[in-house]
Specification:
Largest sheet: 5 strands, mixed
CATH class of the largest domain: Alpha Beta
CATH architecture of the largest domain: 3-Layer(aba) Sandwich
Distance between the termini: 77 Å
Strand order of the largest sheet: 15-14-18-16-17
Number of strands: 18
Number of helices: 14
Bound molecules: iron/sulfur cluster
CATH superfamily of the largest domain: NADH-ubiquinone oxidoreductase 51kDa subunit
Helix content: 25-40%
Shape: globular
CATH topology of the largest domain: Rossmann fold
Radius of gyration: 28 Å
C-alpha cells in the first residue's frame, strides 16, 4: 500500500501519494537509438482534435519529414513521415487508443536510406521572427503536448495568448512510476529544453519561465542548471518540487510553483500560467533550430517483462514489438503490455501497436496488481484525503452508479484527473477511477448527442423557413398574375387557376 503523502512535507499540494518510483532500472544506460524498423505505422489521429486527412496515396514514395496528413479543422496537428520509403497501405491498425479500436494508419515500408525531404526554407531565425509567425511555424511541425495529453501545441499557445499570461511553466515533474523519459531528456538534452523555453518565451511575449523538476532528480537538476548558466537568461528559473504523485498534473504544478489555484472547470491560463512538457519544449527546439518536425520521441521501455530496460529515441510509427526486441526482448515472465505508466496507461493485447507521439512508456509486466473483491464503501474518507483535486470520490462514486449527471457535474467530476490515487487507498477495493472514466465518457456521449439533436433541429427549422418563404413567394406571384389577368379578361383567370391547381398537386 503506498503512503498517503499527507504524512510528509507536502508543500502546497493537497493529497497525492508517495509511490515506489521503480525508475532506476531504465536510467542505467544513455538514451539508445534503435535501428529503423521495416515498417512504420503512422496513425492519422495522434492528437486531440480532428483526425488529419492523408495527402499521399498508396504506392507513393515519401521522404523523412514529408507532410503525410493534415488536419482540416481548427484543432489538430499534421503528421509527417518518420523515414523514407513507400506508402504500402492506408488502413485500420491496432493502436493503444482509449477504446482499443483499430484506427486509420498510413503504413510506410522503409527503404533503409532515411532520406530527408528538402526544406523550402532554412530553420527559422526565430529571435528575429514576429511571435505570431513563430506560432504559425510551430503549427506546421506537428508538435503536440508530449506529456501524454497530445493537445496540439500551437493551438494551445494561440489560445493562451488571448488571455493575460504571466508565467510559462515547463513540466519536468515526471511523477508516475517506471517512466523516466523526461528525466533522461533533461540529463542529456538540457540545452535543447532551455532553447525551447527561450523560443516559447519569445512566441508568447513573456518574461518568466519556470523549469520544474522533482527534487529526487539530481542529475537532471545539475544539467539544467549548467545549461541555464550557459544561456545567461534571467527570465529562466529552475524550480524543484517534492516527489509526490501526481505533482506533474498541470493544475497541481501551477499550485506548487505559483501558489495559484486553478478554478474548478478552469485552465491554468485562468490564473496566468501556461504549462508545457519539457519534451514539447525540446521538440520545438528541434523544429525551429534543426528543421526536424515531430518524427521521433524518447520513450521508456521497462518492467520486469523486458530483458534490458532502457530509454530509446525512436521514430514515431515504430512497432512496439521492434522496440521490445531492441531492448533485449521479453523475459519468460512477460505477461502484460501497458502503453503508458501503471497509473494512467492503457493495457493492450498486441505489440503490433506503434509508438505514437503520446507514448512516453512501454511497460511490460509479469503481473498486474489484482485488487481484492469489491466491498461496500465504509465511508472511511481515505479517498478524499488523497485526492489532489479535493473531490469527494465516495460521493462521486455514488452519483456515477446512479448515473446522476447533474450531481456528478456539481460535485466536480470534470475536474477529476483520473490519477487513480483514490483506488490505491480504498480498503473496499472499489474501482473508483474506472467508474469516473466511464461516467465522463457517458457525459461526453450525451453532450455529443445533444449537439447532434441541436444540429438536426436547426436543419429542420431552416428547411421549414425555406419552404414557407417559397410558399409566400408563390402566393405573391399568383396575386401579381391575377392582377395582370384582371386587366386581360376571364380566360386568362381560368388559365391561372388551372396552373395553380397543377402547382398544388405537384
Ligand atoms: S476509500 Fe473506499 S471505502 Fe473509504 S470512503 Fe472512499 S470509497 Fe468509501
Ligand atoms: S482519480 Fe479523480 S477522484 Fe480519484 S483521486 Fe484522482 S482526481 Fe481524485
Amino acid at each position: 500500500m503506498p503512503s498517503p503523502a499527507a504524512t510528509y512535507d507536502l508543500g502546497k499540494l493537497h493529497g497525492g501519494l508517495r509511490l515506489d518510483a521503480r525508475k532506476s532500472a531504465s536510467t542505467g544506460l544513455p538514451i539508445q537509438s534503435p535501428p529503423l524498423p521495416e515498417q512504420l505505422i503512422l496513425p492519422i489521429e495522434q492528437h486531440v482534435g480532428e483526425p488529419a486527412q492523408p495527402l499521399v496515396g498508396i504506392g507513393e514514395h515519401v521522404l523523412r519529414g514529408q507532410l503525410l496528413a493534415e488536419s482540416p479543422g481548427t484543432l489538430g496537428a499534421p503528421v509527417h513521415a518518420s523515414s523514407s520509403g513507400k506508402v504500402v497501405a492506408i488502413e485500420p491498425w491496432p493502436v493503444a487508443g482509449r477504446r482499443g479500436d483499430p484506427a486509420p494508419c498510413i503504413v510506410i515500408e522503409c527503404d533503409g536510406e532515411d532520406r530527408a525531404v528538402e526544406s523550402a526554407d532554412n530553420p527559422a531565425p526565430w529571435a528575429e521572427t514576429p511571435p505570431d509567425d513563430v506560432l504559425r511555424k510551430i503549427l506546421q511541425g506537428g508538435i503536440v503536448g508530449l506529456g501524454g495529453a497530445v493537445f496540439p501545441t500551437a493551438q494551445k499557445l494561440m489560445q493562451a495568448t488571448a488571455g493575460e499570461l504571466e508565467y510559462l511553466i515547463l513540466n519536468g515533474a515526471e511523477c508516475e512510476p517506471y517512466i523516466s523519459c523526461d528525466d533522461m531528456l533533461m540529463r542529456e538534452h538540457a540545452r535543447d529544453i532551455v532553447s525551447g523555453a527561450q523560443i516559447l518565451l519569445h512566441a508568447l511575449e513573456l518574461d518568466c519561465a519556470y523549469i520544474v523538476v522533482e527534487s529526487d532528480k539530481p542529475d537532471a537538476i545539475g544539467q539544467l542548471a549548467a545549461a541555464m548558466t550557459d544561456a545567461a537568461d534571467e527570465r529562466l528559473v529552475l524550480k524543484q518540487v517534492p516527489t509526490i504523485y501526481p505533482s506533474g498534473g498541470e493544475d497541481q504544478l501551477v499550485q506548487l510553483v505559483t501558489d495559484r489555484e486553478v478554478p474548478s472547470g478552469g485552465l491554468p491560463t485562468d490564473v496566468g500560467c501556461l504549462v508545457q512538457n519539457v519534451g514539447t519544449a525540446a521538440a520545438i527546439h528541434d523544429w525551429l533550430r534543426r528543421g526536424e518536425p515531430l518524427i521521433s520521441r524518447i520513450t521508456t521501455i521497462t518492467g520486469d517483462g523486458i530483458a534490458t530496460p532502457m530509454n530509446v529515441r525512436a521514430r514515431i510509427g515504430t512497432p512496439v514489438a521492434a522496440l521490445a526486441q531492441f531492448a533485449g526482448g521479453y523475459t519468460d515472465s512477460a505477461r502484460h503490455l501497458v502503453i503508458g505508466g501503471p497509473m494512467t496507461g492503457k493495457s493492450v493485447s498486441t505489440d503490433r501497436v506503434p509508438l505514437v507521439k503520446a507514448t512516453n512508456c512501454i511497460l511490460v509486466l509479469s503481473d498486474l496488481p489484482q485488487p481484492g473483491p469489491e466491498l461496500p464503501c465504509i465511508r472511511c474518507g481515505e479517498c478524499a484525503a488523497v485526492c489532489p483535486v479535493q473531490l469527494q470520490p465516495q460521493q462521486l462514486f455514488w452519483y456515477a452508479c446512479a448515473d446522476n449527471e447533474r450531481q456528478l457535474r456539481s460535485h466536480g467530476l470534470t475536474d477529476c484527473i483520473e490519477c487513480g490515487c483514490c483506488d490505491l487507498v480504498c480498503p473496499s477495493h472499489i474501482p473508483l477511477t474506472y467508474e469516473f472514466r466511464m461516467a465522463k465518457a457517458r457525459i461526453r456521449e450525451q453532450e455529443a448527442e445533444k449537439a447532434r439533436a441541436e444540429r438536426a433541429r436547426r436543419r429542420f427549422e431552416a428547411r421549414n423557413e425555406r419552404l414557407q418563404r417559397e410558399q409566400r413567394e408563390r402566393e405573391a406571384e399568383l396575386t401579381r398574375q391575377k392582377e395582370r389577368a384582371k386587366q386581360a379578361g376571364p380566360d386568362a383567370i381560368a388559365e391561372i387557376m388551372k396552373r395553380k391547381q397543377q402547382d398544388d398537386g405537384d
